[in-house]
Write a structure and sequence with these properties.
Chain B: One of its GO terms (molecular function) is 2 iron, 2 sulfur cluster binding. The structure holds 2 protein chains of 2 kinds. Chain A is of the alpha+beta class. Chain A contains 12 helices and 11 strands. The model of chain A has no long low-confidence stretch (mean pLDDT 97). The mean pLDDT of chain B is 97. Chain B folds into 2 domains: 76 residues, Beta-grasp domain (Ubiquitin-like (UB roll), Roll), CATH 3.10.20; 85 residues, DNA polymerase, domain 1 (Orthogonal Bundle). The chains are: A alpha+beta, B alpha+beta.
């Protein structure tokens, strides 16, 4: 690990001021950042410890939603009684990720900012446009079975690894951030950047901008499912995952909010898929049509071609489970 | 950088490079070599310790970030002549072969049983709103962050189940 200056932030104003400095990173849980710093994939010159800031706690908002402090751990969020009752897809997604030890450390804000697990991003002996802009992409034509099929560019086919963020995207979450110019809220829909020619830029956060909370709107109701397909049944990243909030009324789908993990450079959501489902009676043919829309632009890169049919089947399984008559 | 760590009820003054992981501080600077370095990347769980009542990977956190926290290592759970319930159960059930992962397994299981007691659900919990029990399936899922290359998992699960049953009776 390269040497760095360690700064323990005493208040938010100091954190965003120090955080805006060059080659500076915030640290909270540190489970991903320190891993990458050990490998020198990331080598900040300064790290600003935000763990002593008042950014914890889960509060109810005026409109029946939740405001989740950025430092709330994945464990605490998954176990929160309100989340389990009103936003179960979020609990399920959190519990499907990482291990007990990691969930105890990993925070809400940090989880959103996780870096990809693309092998070539981790391997400093290989070119990677995300790690070293302009160096090339070894994943293209390399080992890419875990990588993306949607929203990629010629420069990068990395996936976003989070489970939590997939559920949050299905739930229309918003991210509250604070910078030197004040605070703002960003819809999770607008939070992540497409890789394009700049895969090293992953979010719209400005230097020094600090995630302070994630806001969930009032409970979405419906049936909530998080289904994760992975190489082993615990403690593994998603090959494909689906977060679903689906409601059926009078035999027709009245609501469908769907987000996908393991497919793209960000937790993936495609409103056209949802529009095709709403107002229709659930059927295998309908689910297949939804998958056609979702996968119109899907592109395999050899090793990950299997994700295209796997996504189709996983979506059908989730929609079938979500719409079957209550037993 | 100078800071203090509270480990197993004792306060220690340290002067370390901020890069020092909590694991390295415990092993190399405080002589507490029970916590083991397996992968050093949070994948194997051999370094698991309990901080503020919660199990974490001590390899993936900086020692200097834990000033003021109550840290418990396997040395703080029991001693050869005064084993903790889980330590005794691991011996009884052959919960290890080479023993390298065992301190991490025991720290992890100690805190994990507390998580079940608090009613935390897991990925295999069917109903998110009912109290869970320490079944084989629940224990296996909740202990997935602790690898055992000797594959003593049946003994590990038996040991944990026995302690969970004893605690439920107590």
């Amino acid at each position: 690990m390269r040497a760095f200056d360690y700064i323990r932030a005493g208040d938010r104003a100091q954190a965003v001021r120090d955080g805006a400095g060059p080659e500076t990173r915030f640290i909270a849980g540190g489970t991903n950042l320190l891993d990458l710093m050990k490998l020198e994939v990331m080598a900040p010159e300064r790290i600003v410890d935000i763990t002593r800031l008042e950014l914890g706690g889960i509060e109810e908002t005026a409109d029946g939603g939740l405001r989740i402090g950025a430092l709330v751990t994945n464990s605490d969020l998954a176990a929160d009684a309100r989340v389990r009752r009103g936003w179960p897809v979020l609990s399920r997604a959190l519990l499907a990720g990482a291990s007990g030890q990691l969930r105890n450390k990993a925070t809400t804000g940090g989880n959103l900012l996780q870096r990809t697990r693309c092998y070539y991003f981790y391997d400093r002996g290989e070119p990677c446009n995300k790690r070293e802009p302009g160096s090339g992409c070894a994943a293209m034509g390399g080992m890419n079975r875990i990588l993306a099929i949607l929203g990629t560019s010629e420069q990068c086919i990395a996936t976003h690894p989070s489970d939590m963020a997939v559920a949050m995207r299905a739930l229309d979450a918003r991210v509250e951030v604070e910078g030197q110019d004040g605070t703002r809220e960003i819809a999770l829909d607008d939070f992540y950047c497409s890789p394009g020619d700049t895969p090293h830029i992953e979010t719209v956060l400005a230097p020094g901008e600090l995630i302070t909370a994630v806001i969930l709107p009032a409970p979405a109701g419906g049936r909530q499912i998080y289904r994760k397909v992975r190489d082993r049944s615990s403690y593994a990243f998603a090959l494909v995952s689906v977060a679903a909030v689906v409601e059926v009324e009078n035999g027709k789908i009245a609501k469908a909010q769907l987000a996908f993990g393991g497919l793209g450079p960000m937790p993936w959501r495609d409103r056209a898929v949802e529009e095709a489902l709403v107002g229709e009676a659930p059927s295998p043919a309908l689910f297949d049509r939804a998958a056609d829309i979702l996968l119109t632009e899907a592109k395999g890169h050899g090793g990950n071609d299997f994700k295209i049919p796997l996504t189709r089947r996983t979506l059908a399984a989730v929609l079938s489970q979500a719409t079957e008559a209550a037993a | 950088m100078q800071f203090e760590l509270d480990v197993n009820g004792e306060r220690h003054a340290l002067d370390l490079d901020p890069r020092t992981s909590l694991l390295d501080a415990l092993r190399d600077h405080l002589g507490l070599t029970g916590s083991k370095k397996g992968c050093d990347h949070g994948q194997c769980g051999a370094c698991t310790v309990i901080v503020e009542g919660r199990r974490i990977n001590s390899c993936l956190t900086l020692a200097c970030m834990h000033e003021g926290d109550e840290i418990t290592t396997v040395e703080g759970l029991g001693a050869p002549d005064d084993l903790s319930p889980l330590q005794r159960a691991f011996v009884e059930h052959d919960g290890y072969q080479c023993g390298y992962c065992t301190p991490g397994q025991i720290c992890s299981a100690t805190a994990m049983l507390g998580e079940i007691e608090k009613g935390w659900p897991s990925n295999v919990t069917e109903d998110l709103e009912t109290q869970v029990e320490a079944s084989i399936e629940e224990i296996s899922e909740r202990m997935s962050g602790n690898l055992c290359r000797c594959s003593c998992y049946p003994g590990i699960v038996d040991a944990i189940r026995q302690v969970a049953k004893e605690e439920a009776r107590a």
